[in-house]
Amino acid sequence: MSLIIAAGGTAGHLFPALAIAQAWKKAQKKPVYFIGSDYGMETTLIPQYHYPLYTLPIRGFYRKQWYKNFPLLWRIPVSVYKAYRLINKLKPRLIIGTGGYASFPIILCAYLQRRPFILYEPNCYPGLVTRLFSAKAYELWCNTEEVLKWLPKVKRYKVIGVPLRETFLTSVDKAAAYRFFGLSSEKKTVLVLGGSLGAKPINDAVAQWTTSLPSNIQVLWQTGKRYYAQYKHLEKPRIKVVPFIDAMEKAYAIADFVIARSGAITTAELLHFSKPALLIPSPYVAENHQYWNALALYRKGGYVVWLEKLLSQLSYFLPRYLEEASLEVMKKRITTHKRIATNQWLYQWFLHHG
Q1: Is 345 helix (H, G, I), strand (E, B) or coil?
Q2: pTM
């Protein structure tokens, strides 16, 4: 018997799905099949991990340019038909959806066929698939109890946190990490992340700030692949500009402060590595879920929430957060946050329920 994981679109849906797949393989040693979209980053990411991938022609909604949604009139029924046939072909023991538009056809078919399915919701505000099917699922797995206030009909749930990549669960040689990025261990390191696709407003604000970079600060700056060409000329000995960071565990190991979006994966990684951060929720994501993620961390303490429309003022306020006293206060508050050993929990669950 096998496992189907329906996931796709962005890293926020895919990396938890990969961690779930790794836990299943470790516990059950049975096949895992991924089903995603023809148009998401899963088409390049999943093959790197050597899992079978099937794709559907489903695509997300355009919330502002509504006229672009007309192709969904054929994409949705064709995707549902293909999903129905895939389920019958693969005969899964269990189906897990980690959210995003790519999971909709599979979860709908699982519900119509009365097959057991689990939904995983990493955000503090639930996505559309979670809102539609969570009350009908065998179980809802969620990152935090915050999401449950939006899902009053859900009775079966587990709060499990966010599963992380296995490379995050092993210790990192900090000195080697500094050498890996070509940075100094004698300076404070600010890590800049704009999400898996990059964020031009954040890049612009950081570009402005680095024009007068204090001598005790260095920057590891992930621009996103689509923006790298615009900012690579700003690289200097104390400013490392890269399109994408694969070895994120090394980046977090040397970071003293992080400037980042507040996707579910990023916020979980910040907590895991106990890194103070300035969180800039993306105003362009569905249901403004990054705002709710950032707000949840802000309430717990140790994090600053900064709206994108105020980024022009970042250069003025950022030095205050980088003062040693401010960093120590933020770190102390972060250590009080509750952690969940999600990867181990998944392994034990699959061991007993697979």
Answers
A1: helix
A2: 0.85
